[in-house]
Amino acid sequence: MDDILGLCHQLNDVLARHEGPDEEAAETHRRDQEFRALVENGPDAITRFDRDLRCLYANPARSRLLGMSQADPVGLFLEQIPLLADVATRRRDAIMHVFSGGQEVAIDYGLETPDGYRHYHERIVPELTTDGTIETVLAVARDITDLHEAQAQVARERDAADLQRRRLRAVLDALPVGVFIADAGGRVLAANAEVRRIWGEAPLSESPELYDHDYPARWPDTGRPVQAYEWGLARAMETGEAVSAEEVEIETASGERRTILNYALPIRDASGAIIGGVAVNVDYTEQKRGHRRLRELTEELEQRVEERTAEVTSRSEQLRALVEELETVEQRERQRLAQVLHDHLQQLLVAARYRVNAVQHERPGCDQLAEIDGLLGQSVAMTRSLSVEMDATTLLARGMPVALSWLMAWMYERHGISVDVHLDDAGDPVREDLRLLLFQAARELVFNVVKHAGVDRAELRTERDGDCLVLTVRDEGRGFEASPAAIRGESGPGLGLPSLSRRLSIAGGSLEVDASMGHGTRVTVRMPVAPEMGERSQQVAPAAKPGG
Length: 548
Hints:
The protein is of the alpha+beta class. The chain is built from 15 helices and 17 strands. It has 4 domains: 2-143, 2-Layer Sandwich (Beta-Lactamase), CATH 3.30.450; 176-283, Beta-Lactamase (2-Layer Sandwich), CATH 3.30.450.20; 300-391; 398-540, Heat Shock Protein 90. Helices cover 49% and strands 23% of the residues. The strands form 3 sheets. A 6-stranded antiparallel beta sheet has the order 7-6-11-10-9-8, sandwiched between helices. It has a 6-stranded mixed beta sheet with strand order 15-16-14-13-12-17, covered by helices on one side.
């Protein structure tokens, strides 16, 4: 652009001397041809305006910019040339300023052209006559779109880099670990806020040779000072070693001793060359103290647990013996009462019924005697059922299938619940107390259905599973939330399950509950039996008569 403006000034000088000899006229013509060749073939858009802001000349580049032929703008006033209003105003103000002040003016603007939106840098310079007056100005506009976009790209990249730096700093300062970043020479360039908290006002070391001075520390196993070249960052920078969780005892700027876990990694470029390094310090002081205290407490606890375990074992054995004794006493009392019912009360009732029958023969048609006979018959049946209910040992002696079938028939007669019974007759628990406990469990679980399920049907099933006999009672009633707290008796309906679960646990068995609101309940009891049980035979047990 400066070359073009220089040629313009030279051409003006020659034209000012146009009335000289012929050789000067020839020189003028030559210079004019050079000027036109330059401005008409160059990329810069050139226009000339007089004091009336009339366009005296426009080169092809300016005409193409305006979307006009070369001759179209010539003779038009500035405001007649098609430009955006704000651009036209700025050009007019700049041209008027050159005419009035005689000084060059430069403006930048954007313009929609036939080639799309472009950016221009335009210089407007005065053209002087021989007497120093300004009759015209020359405007030279250069397309700086590529430069403008390059500058904008540089600015965007600079802003992005600055944003990344600020984000990195924010991330580093938010980390709960201390972070050092070093350049290729090992000089520490940056450290985050956690480094200052761990080390205090420790300096950013200028060289790996100063690491032992700037960051004093000792190896915890030997107490030997950490040498400069032994620091993880120095080794990572020197050999590319990745250092992980290296325990070091440091001395802070205030003289406080702390324990850290040190990590270090080299930073490599695309070719793999080491161009820096990063070290991470994890403050391990409180954890170290906590681990030491935890070891002490663990040793103390283990000793106490050993003592308590021996005590609990002893008490557990005493409790088991007491429970077994209580169950034995209870069963003995049940047997005694059942015997009283069977051998005495039942016999008396039977004898009374015989007497009533005899009197009936003597006095036929007496309604009172018939009523008394019926009541005595009910009493006899009730005492028989009650004696079996209180002492099921005689019934259990005939086998679990018979006892459970009788029990379900009795539940139907007493409570109106129909139970589908599916029994495995492969064998019973060897011990009498286990058979009795299983019988009682079946009775309690079916009675729970009567009280809580809101249905009149249920299913009872027994089957062999390894060395265990499994008894399952299932219903499709209202169910309940079978949380562990409910099973323990801490919440939920009072189903008697906690007591049954404890009794089964003492006997070596277990109780599992699968239930939810509106989806019924399934309770499974597992009871150990003798390993030799024979072959399993699945059957639907026949209904038994109570007292049969």
